[in-house]
Specification:
heterodimer, A: mainly alpha, two-stranded antiparallel sheet, globular, B: 127 residues, mainly alpha
Chain lengths: 280, 127
């Protein structure tokens, strides 16, 4: 395969990854690294580098639209970014010492875990929860444009649990070059009881900042290859912008099923590749 | 009163993100176009990790190569602009919270910004 053919194939693959990632609130990275390592036989470190920059593109591109729609909560995002950026630094340092086979297996496990979490039956969204003293002190409670029209108010719950899970999400992001949107969304869905659209968009919003925290370290270690990252970033960005337009109208149940099936398949393959040593 | 200002910050943040992504994607696109013109039939090898050459691992190196209009350096510049976009977003949020006089969130945002600057400037002088 020559550079032109590879670039075109990477563009198409990344476009699909970006579309899927955006529709499911995961960011393109979670399907990108398996795509690059399993199908294109790219070294996992180059794959992680290209994935990380494209995660920044996805997040920033989609967030520009969400922010205007009034779904994301900028204060919750900023507060939790303290946890995710510290976690990302730890993860990025760790990724430079962990063997690539182990990285592949961890990656596979994270994929399976994300799929498991997403398939857990979602309890009916609790509404009109009482205000939590800490969340109120942190001025996190907000409102968003609801399906029924007008604005719906919500009260944020359990800030310490959300904050701790976010540190883990940041560490995974820095270690594997993904946005770890699934973990972020679940911290906000389950622990902090945010409405689904608010947690998805706020998570997406935070992913760029989290990824930027580990990008400096990746760049310096030579993980970011321009020839590889170019089609990946452009493809993922186009796909995610397309996905962001669909998300505003989409039915989340179908998305979650789609997302978990893809992820299970890729997770199994990553673990298999890691164990058999069929990964560079 | 507070809601109105928050809306304002969010709008500015949205504009910054949009502009950052558009500009960096364009730079990456131009660099990629030049790269393909020169290297379309070459055989890429990403199977073995070698790490990038020193001049593609830091802002100084990238800027140095740009003077010779090196295609890969142009792509790398675009990627650096992309990485800088969320950082700029955090800076804009600080300005917004200062305008609101929200001391608690000024300090939260300052913490996030110093972590980002540490990664980009302190962790191995990538910039």
């Amino acid at each position: 395969m020559n550079v032109l053919e590879l670039t075109v194939l990477l563009l198409l693959g990344s476009l699909t990854a970006g579309l899927l990632g955006s529709l499911t609130g995961l960011g393109g990275g979670v399907v990108l690294v398996p795509l690059l390592t399993i199908f294109f036989k790219v070294d996992i470190r180059y794959a992680i580098g290209a994935s990380l920059v494209s995660v920044i593109a996805t997040s920033s591109g989609a967030a520009a639209a969400y922010v205007k729609e009034g779904f994301s909560n900028i204060r919750i995002g900023m507060f939790l970014e303290i946890a995710t950026t510290v976690g990302a630094l730890c993860g990025a340092f760790l990724s430079t010492v962990v063997p690539t086979k182990v990285l592949a297996i961890i990656f596979g496990l994270v994929l399976l875990y994300s799929a498991y979490l997403s398939r857990k039956p979602r309890t009916a969204q609790e509404r009109d929860l009482p205000p939590d003293p800490l969340a109120t002190k942190l001025k996190m409670n907000g409102s968003f444009p609801s399906e029924e029209g007008g604005f719906r108010r919500y009260n944020v719950q359990n800030v310490p649990a959300g904050f701790s899970v976010m540190f883990g999400a940041g560490a995974i992001s820095g270690l594997l070059g993904i946005g770890s949107g699934a973990v972020k969304v679940l911290a906000m869905d389950h622990a902090m009881k945010l409405p689904f659209k608010v947690s998805t968009t706020t998570s997406n919003f935070m992913i760029g900042v989290t990824a930027a925290a580990s990008a400096g370290i990746y760049l310096n270690r030579g993980y970011i290859d321009p020839g590889l990252a170019m089609p990946v970033v452009l493809g993922v960005l186009s796909g995610s912008l397309l996905g962001a337009h669909i998300l505003m109208r989409a039915e989340t149940k179908v998305l979650r099923l789609l997302f978990s099936l893809v992820i299970v398949a890729l997770g199994v393959q990553m673990i298999y590749a890691g164990i058999t040593g069929n990964i560079s | 009163m507070i809601r109105w200002s928050d809306r304002k910050i969010e709008e500015i943040v949205g504009e910054i993100l949009r502009a950052g992504v558009i500009v960096s994607a364009l730079v990456v696109f131009v660099g990629g176009f030049l790269y393909l013109i020169g290297n379309a039939w070459a055989r890429p090898d990403y199977h073995v990790f070698r790490g990038e050459p020193a001049d593609l691992k830091s802002l100084g190196g990238v800027l140095h190569d740009l003077r010779r209009l090196h295609a890969l350096a142009i792509i790398q510049l675009g990627l650096l602009l992309l990485i800088a976009t969320p950082v700029l977003r955090v800076v804009a949020s600080i300005v917004g919270f200062v305008a609101e006089g929200d001391r608690m969130y000024i300090s939260f945002t300052a913490i996030v910004l110093s972590i980002l600057l540490y990664s980009l400037l302190g962790s191995g002088s990538a910039f």
